[in-house]
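Annotators were shown the component list below and the corresponding predicted structure, then asked to write short factual statements about the assembly.
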Amino acid sequence: MFKKTLLAVSMTAACLASASSLAAEKVDLLIKNATVLTMDQDKTVYDNGLVAVRDNKIFAVTDGSDLAEYKAKQTIDADGDIVMPGLINTHTHVSMTVFRSMADDVPDRLHRYIFPLEKKLVSRDMVRIGAQLGNVEMVKGGVTTYADMYYFEDEVAKTVDQIGMRAVLGETVIKFPVADAANAEEGIMYAVNFIEEYKNHPRITPAFAPHAPYTNTTETLQTITKLSLQYDVPVMIHLAESKRENQVIAERSGGKSPVEYMAQIGALTPNLVGAHVINVSDSDIELLKKHDVGIAHNMSANIKSAKGVSPALKMFDDGLRIGLGTDGPMSGNTISTIDEFNQVAKVHKLVNKDRAAMPPIKVIEMATMGAARALHMEDKIGSLETGKLADIIVVDTKAPNMVPVYNPYSALVYSAYAANVKHTIVDGKVLMQDRNMLTVDETAIRNEALKFADTVRKTVVESGEIVQ
Amino acid sequence: MFKKTLLAVSMTAACLASASSLAAEKVDLLIKNATVLTMDQDKTVYDNGLVAVRDNKIFAVTDGSDLAEYKAKQTIDADGDIVMPGLINTHTHVSMTVFRSMADDVPDRLHRYIFPLEKKLVSRDMVRIGAQLGNVEMVKGGVTTYADMYYFEDEVAKTVDQIGMRAVLGETVIKFPVADAANAEEGIMYAVNFIEEYKNHPRITPAFAPHAPYTNTTETLQTITKLSLQYDVPVMIHLAESKRENQVIAERSGGKSPVEYMAQIGALTPNLVGAHVINVSDSDIELLKKHDVGIAHNMSANIKSAKGVSPALKMFDDGLRIGLGTDGPMSGNTISTIDEFNQVAKVHKLVNKDRAAMPPIKVIEMATMGAARALHMEDKIGSLETGKLADIIVVDTKAPNMVPVYNPYSALVYSAYAANVKHTIVDGKVLMQDRNMLTVDETAIRNEALKFADTVRKTVVESGEIVQ
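Structure shown to annotators:
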């Protein structure tokens, strides 16, 4: 009798094992017990769901009832934490981290301080050191993809390749001499060489970054437009950011707005991503929509510089391609998109005089799918859906500022900050686990940045060139 | 020869030891190698300074050149991190943490949702559980003193006593039935009993908290004013917060503003602390100044509810007693003052159309000495000066979002968030060290809050009473 029972048990176990192995889906990474915000078309949320990753792609996103069907090389138990698409920062100047907290509130800062500062201090080393620091900040803040505009973008690319992030990197073109080009023509050549070098990189999209309409000639903007269509790469530009820009462009174009001017010269294309887009009329917005232009909304930097509030909510509601950006660390000053959430939600409520305006779910949309759409990458990233690239973050819901979570979108927007991000995964690879960086040496990166900051102090702060 | 040298060395060491012990100042806690922001009258900053604590008071704050003169029981090496006065949150409803992220953006929320929700769910347990969670959040965010307005404040007091924070606790008085009083008279009695019980507590200041002018009668407000002067305790009130309040008070008083009405009935006294103070004219501001009223400025909650922006910068510049508050966790939604910094600086720039408006040093002043002045506690807390109570925080400058620091005020305001606070000290006692809570069990507190949140879900969320 005893033997029989034992035999029966053994057989059952064997059958189960056999059935299980028959059904088992082998995956590389499994995140279970998760509050999954998929950010798919229907905004599906799974309370106790799972996300399975095979190679660098999302293999499955489910309600968790099929948990037993997966056999994973690595399993993360989210223990109820929020699992969502990695954040996409649509606009920054990552290398400027090394200048952060300098001369923050001086008037006419770009022309009086930043351009001269950059002329003196931008170098390959500065770009590399600043990007390494900024990459760590972003990964620790849940940013998995970012769009950058700066100089020596091939140096930024090396740091992105090393840390394992995804990025759209725009080489700056501007009409006056800068660190890596004597003029716009040299800037274009630098960009073309960079594009040739990186056009087949699996995680890096090289791009042109004409600084702004008013800091480039019509001819330069047209040449870049033509080349961008030829290479099929993005063009990133500061657009309709300041009143000064509107004045200069109106003088140049016989009274046109920056957006109208760009349309007139043929520079509004689906490859264009405009950053800021503050001073625009309803007809400008229609033009941007018609030409399928992407838009980076940088609330924090725009209000810090008192430039005003972009009609981003209207553009979002009108169906334009718009996502959140942080602007650079001399502007924002932090570069994790999560630090924008709070301000984006609240300032749009303030200016619309409506507490229901810009609800949290729209903010999260603008940080994920909206940002993916702004960069024309919505087929690859921005939501947790089968077949998309595995860019995923886990947000701690047990930190005291996050308890309790009745509404995960509200908790993310009104309560979370960068340090609440627990794990960051890009292209199926865990870059940060339990807040520890796995692919780079954070301490060495910080120390190199601090050493460079000493050079900055000696060069411009102690001489009194930069007023604090 | 060898022996002689050895003897000489020994003698020198003995002499040094003797000299040292002669000069040694015995202290309990020494924080060295610190970037000390004293927030004293002259805004003295020491780049490599020290703060020495004896018992519960600051014994010395220096440039660090006298480091060898102290013999401390405990030493914290700040390694260049920022050491500053503990933050003072001038306005919150700490126990409401258990309702956080619920129905955030619904119109007329206070009357349609919050009051009915509270009627159903406020209890001694709820107040205790919510306060414990909120206390942990605040200590971990660098808040050392807070001002609270809620029910069952004796329960809040027990949690404050246990964790070791400092607080001004105001027992609510309101004209309709609430959890701990059937009417305003009972509320006043509850408050008086609470004040009697806690009036000699070393870290707790009991207070009256009439909810608002429009939710109390003139008689109630006058009775409370009289009693507050008799007991010499603060009166905390929501003041000039909403347009509805202005309408109700205008009807009651023949067209007066809330501030004018309070002046007329004799309720503007130096004991009063008004929260929000949004809808005020220049003459209202003059009245508040004349009567030496304290003011709590809650930017984050005010813009989230689209109520508008308080003229806090004008009040600060005019010399009024004004400090930062967070409002409650259903409003703000986080309750660490550091989370306000960014928004306070930037939104005042936006509305003043001036990037130089509200510079970081003013924000830090409003979080420390300004807040101490708002609570009439500036002789005891708010700055690091010899003789003041030892409420001190250490802010990590090595987190990637904080590197580098050219200007510590800028770094705190534009880059820091709550998790950058490394150590929190209140009354000379370390409450958090390296982000670990030393006086309470954080996990047990979180679990109790999560369990209570399940009750909330069953009571009002699943029934559909609260719309998400």
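Statements collected:
1. Chain A has 16 helices and 17 strands.
2. The two ends of chain A are 87 Å apart (CA to CA).
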